Amino acid sequence: MIYLDYAATTPMCKEALQTYQQANVEYFGNEQSLHDIGSRAGALLQTCRKKLATFLNGEEKGIFFTSGGSESNMLAVHSLLLAHTQKGKHILTTKVEHASIRNYFRKLENHGFSVTYIPVDSFGLIDMVALEKAIRSDTVLASIQHANSEIGTIQRLTEIGSLLKKHDILFHTDCVQTFGKIPIDVEKMNIDSLSISAHKLYGPKGVGACYINPNIHWKPVWEGTSHEFGFRPGTVNVPGIAAFLTAAEIMINTQKGEAKRIEALRQLFCEGLCNISHSLSIEGHPTLHLPNIVGVTIEGIEGQYTMLECNRNGIAISTGSACHSHKQEPSQTMIAIGKSHERAKQYVRFSFGTHTTKQHIHITLEIIEKMIDQFPGGAVVP
């Protein structure tokens, strides 16, 4: 089967698997234990913490390991809000955020917080004028993703971070889709906290990390927790974290070359789509986009049908974020960029990775063209 759903998850690379196996044998101890076996695990954990901090141009004491991106999002935001509610309860965000952020903020709105959703343009880019106008004296935090998981549009974090810093507003960003694929610099971008996940970059599932600027005060969600400096409860998955860092180091070291290779595949795919039919639209920003994500709408054909037809022909794609796809609702990103509910339901996502080849692209284009030609009732074609 041709796998084109790397934005949902990636297979573990062999190096990460080897690290995981070795760490489970040699560093299996609880890193909180006081004996030598625990100390060995603790030393490996600190090595991983220090290494991850260098990848972000941050400080190692700002790294907290978690179970993944969603937990990192919620714990980071909640920990910061607990420590800064004296300033106010107004939050800034967008409607193109990951479901973990959107759902969490909906919950906060029922507990006395006010949330302003900053609009984005038809490419998914945040409206900077609207962002500045939305700032209030009681605005305490903004959560704006680095790149969208459905259309790949990259936000101008340096510009956003600079504006928020000027107004003394905490800045959290979801970097789950971008870490390892494009550079992230917490200092340059004025990022106070961010979230990342291992399984998006060929590491294990159930492992992630949060970064919080050590100069920013935060309060633990669970009082009395000893693990991860009180940030979260539960025995730390040291072997999984070691595997995560192995995968991350490979991604960082090959970042430029792989981004160039995948961008070439993206261009090949997009050109092929444009040649198939005028009913196909490529969503997202033409230049400010991740190389590996291509959001597509096909006029007259629902995304669910396209996904099933691709699956029937041995190609794995998706109709959006895996955290939302089973609800069979229109893509919230599509609605946010101005699509009608009907058009939003016609969206599908193709996402590329390490094992994607030109042959995979050509086969996929052939299947899409055949599907449109044979679509019952007739798709809108030129």
Tell me roughly what share of residues is in helical segments: 25-40%
Uncertain ranges = none
The number of helices is 12
How much of the sequence lies in strands comes to 5-15%
The tally of beta strands, per DSSP, is 12
- Whole-Å distance between the termini? 31 Å
Whole-number average pLDDT?
94
Shape: globular
| Strand order, largest beta sheet | 2-8-7-6-5-3-4
Biggest beta-sheet profile: 7 strands, mixed
H/E series, N to C?
Answer: EHHEHEHEHEHEEEHHEEHEHHEH
Structural class determined from secondary elements: alpha/beta
Cα gyration radius (Å): 21 Å
Give your account of this protein's structure.
With 382 residues, the chain is an alpha/beta fold. It contains 12 helices and 12 strands. A 7-stranded mixed sheet has the order 2-8-7-6-5-3-4, with helices on both faces. It has a 3-stranded antiparallel sheet with strand order 9-10-12. A two-stranded parallel ribbon has the order 1-11.
Task: Characterize this entry briefly.
The chain contains twelve helices and twelve strands.
List the keywords.
single chain; 382 residues; alpha/beta; seven-stranded mixed beta sheet; three-stranded antiparallel beta sheet; 12 helices; 12 strands
